[in-house]
């Protein structure tokens, strides 16, 4: 499929997402589930069309919708996808902050292993370009793992 058709498809998904977020007389609350799905579909279309800025924007909106829906694990997954998009763009400036954000969401959801993994993946992406930031991410990942081990040890002692 050509990139223009993929962009048209993405715009349709965005339209549906925005429609699901609107409230009215008979619809009192936004439907974040539908909005999440549509924004992620739009992001996929934009990624296939190599329109990475729009892809990033849609993934960020999907993450916001997941957070509104209290689905923190899926919001963190969206942030990890944004990190991969930034890697494709060779835009490494935001990766550290997004990795920390994903880590916090994973921890709040109760998935410390995923939190440490997200930090590790992001650190590997930026270790050649920004070694100090990568070191910071690795140190944070170690702290997360150490907390897991302390709780595990205390549970069985």
TrEMBL record:
A family per Pfam: SNAP
Q: Which UniProt keywords apply?
A: ER-Golgi transport, Membrane, Protein transport, Transport
Membrane as a keyword of this entry, yes or no, is yes
Question: Record's SUPFAM superfamilies?
Answer: TPR-like
Where is it localised? Answer: Membrane
Q: Which GO terms describe its biological process?
A: intracellular protein transport; vesicle-mediated transport
Which GO molecular-function terms appear in the entry? Answer: soluble NSF attachment protein activity; syntaxin binding
* Matches recorded under InterPro entries: NSF_attach, TPR-like_helical_dom_sf
The yes or no answer to whether the keyword Secreted is present is: no
- Give the principal location in a single coarse category: membrane
* Gene Ontology, cellular component aspect: SNARE complex; vacuolar membrane
- What kind of membrane protein is this, topologically? Peripheral membrane protein
Question: What protein family does this chain belong to?
Answer: Belongs to the SNAP family.
Can you name this protein?
Gamma-soluble NSF attachment protein
Source organism: Pseudolycoriella hygida
């Amino acid at each position: 499929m050509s990139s223009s058709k993929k962009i048209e498809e993405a715009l349709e998904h965005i339209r549906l997402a925005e429609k699901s977020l609107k409230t009215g007389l008979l619809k009192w609350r936004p439907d974040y589930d539908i909005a999440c799905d549509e924004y992620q579909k739009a992001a996929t279309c934009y990624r296939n069309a190599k329109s990475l800025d729009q892809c990033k924007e849609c993934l960020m909106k999907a993450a916001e919708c997941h957070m509104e829906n209290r689905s923190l694990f899926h919001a963190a997954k969206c942030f990890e996808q944004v990190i991969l998009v930034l890697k494709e763009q060779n835009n490494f400036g935001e990766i550290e902050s997004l990795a920390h954000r994903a880590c916090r969401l994973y921890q709040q959801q109760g998935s410390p292993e995923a939190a440490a993994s997200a930090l590790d993946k992001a650190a590997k992406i930026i270790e050649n370009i920004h070694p100090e930031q990568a070191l910071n991410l690795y140190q944070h990942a170690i702290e997360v793992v150490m907390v897991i081990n302390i709780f595990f040890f205390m549970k069985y002692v």
